[in-house]
Amino acid sequence: MRSWVESAEGSDFPLENLPLGVFRRADGLACVGTAIGDRILDLRAAADAKLLTGEVVGACRESSLNLLMSMGRAAAGALRAWLMDLLSDTGARKRVEPFLVAQADVQMLLPARIRDYTDFYASVYHATNVGRLFRPDNPLLPNYKYVPIGYHGRASSIVVSGTEVRRPCGQTKPADAPEPVFGPSRALDYELEVGFFVGPGNALGTPIPLAEAESHIFGLCLVNDWSARDVQVWEYQPLGPFLAKNFATTISPWVVTLDALRPFRGPAFARPEGDPKPLAYLDAEGDRSRGGFDVTLEVWLRTARMQEPVRVSRGNLRDLYWTLGQMLTHHASNGCNLQPGDLLASGTVSGATEDSLGCLLELTRRGAQPLQLPDGETRRFLEGGDEVILRGYCEREGHARIGFGECRGRLISG
Amino acid sequence: MRSWVESAEGSDFPLENLPLGVFRRADGLACVGTAIGDRILDLRAAADAKLLTGEVVGACRESSLNLLMSMGRAAAGALRAWLMDLLSDTGARKRVEPFLVAQADVQMLLPARIRDYTDFYASVYHATNVGRLFRPDNPLLPNYKYVPIGYHGRASSIVVSGTEVRRPCGQTKPADAPEPVFGPSRALDYELEVGFFVGPGNALGTPIPLAEAESHIFGLCLVNDWSARDVQVWEYQPLGPFLAKNFATTISPWVVTLDALRPFRGPAFARPEGDPKPLAYLDAEGDRSRGGFDVTLEVWLRTARMQEPVRVSRGNLRDLYWTLGQMLTHHASNGCNLQPGDLLASGTVSGATEDSLGCLLELTRRGAQPLQLPDGETRRFLEGGDEVILRGYCEREGHARIGFGECRGRLISG
What we know:
The structure is a homodimer. By secondary structure, the first copy, chain A, is α+β, with helices and mostly antiparallel strands.
């Protein structure tokens, strides 16, 4: 099946993707839309014009995806089926085309009102690499293979792709100094992550069994969890990262639904021999065959001197030690209530190989081995004017390639 | 000056207090109100009846305090002056009395829509006591006297006083077991804290100088940061507390404004000789004379077998190593944006003496020295049916005593 939108085929957003997002229309209204090629179908306008019907119409007229997220995957699936029809049926073209706007002409907004944001630490490669830098003799802590480690992030400073990021000030303590100093971070890093939005929530006190976890996941986006490493190492004990992370978190504007990702599911991470089985509440047992997501993830860097960005690394979402479902079920296992639009993120996605490391801390061994860029520049950490671009996409023989678009942010700083 | 509301004098809520909160009216509407004696003045009804005028009227007709908080202390001060007049002028009694409702007849709600919740660790006594239990040779970490340590909590599971709290399940690892187990926490604790609500926020990227910090603080409440200690000790490394804390946080419904607390200000904590000076951005220098708050804080416990609660400890808010202003300024020092209605909390308030320890972990030395209750019962940690009641009040010669009301929660569990 093909869309009559000519730019769809071969783009990140073919008919098979139809990610959802929120954009600011020329009249100033924040509107729900779906991406198709280089266009956006304005779902508010389509709903107003009665092109869409059924229970999702109200949700399409909101200024965020929260209501649609709360309605569950069946509602989102019904909307998806409608959109596929409208955007492939050439007979519908005349009716639908007036509601397409060019992506280039509008500003994307955050897709949801994010009430709570939780960041996990689900890549065992990342956890081991980072652990080795800080605790050479004891890189991976004893809880790692039992507990999907996570912590609460800051929701207020989540920004949409394209927002400039200001280099933060903070306390740092040079190893040879008697006292810490306060000033601009000198070890600013990106982190390549994938986020997932909560669909229907759970009541306080009511856990979510693993078998039901994915019915509470609406869709995925890209996340850059900017990190000030020098601040982090000084502040993080004993309560974890705080100001090193909460100055900005950038997310991509398009939420790729689990329906769109269905052809790209695969087995969960294969635990190495000798690793413990997950405890029962986190053990999918027979159902591990489809716990993973085959999403290629790339980091691109464009320094102020470059015309075009260069690729710095490439990893894959299936390299996570814990599945998204396990993270969600763990989060709610004590009765913590998740709400529609809450964002959970994977933590830095790093793989086993040198070219699949998801942050500069790992790539440069905490700055000890600077990254060599093709134009002769080097980077230990980010410098002013550097733009970091995350990309994600899914490819599989016999299926249309789908993409996540970009998660982009430029560092501005003195 | 006295109120014509007879119950005001001698209660937690005399004319000099006038804390703000939100209650559910008989008609189901969530309404802003102020407490006076055992009554609530319904500010929505008062605004509807044009008893209140000026810029705060709109904020009094909301279903949360967020808008009022965003307007700054001058607006809240103007409202306070109006309310003092209305509730003291016997000539106004006839007009105002119809808008009083009995506290006993209505349900209190959360005072604000809390977007982000941050919990600090500002009592050096608490940090030292807890550190000693986990790291006997190194109780206080090197960053403590420089960094107001804090972490992000969970906003969704903040509940108002009176909400029952369910004992959470979680992963724990008994010291002698080869593997962790999943089940109900067996080391459930309370934490006596004080919270403060953000008034006007700051834009992302714009720090808040210490001299302006208090203009961003709207008022204070009591906080019980329930904690599952056995879950905490297993999960907290390296990213800090997560499921051990986010199953429930109880707050008192009445927000005591900084204006009401003005007579009870005092010097900030006196750093012991030899302690470092705060770094410049956290150093109030000449203005340390009024950085503290003299608020007596009590923990009361009522087990299922008791008729009346017994007092377990009594501390004081002035025992914090960091002032509320320092915590807020530190939080925004990297440009992190705070928003009206955000809740920041002090962390457990413990003092130097045995009877001023703010959680059972400290009082019982992690269960090693059970608490002896007057009826012969003992507690290492909380048991099912236990009710924890936090109280706070301010007393000073020549000033009317004001109170915070209660922060109450009963543990239900198998």
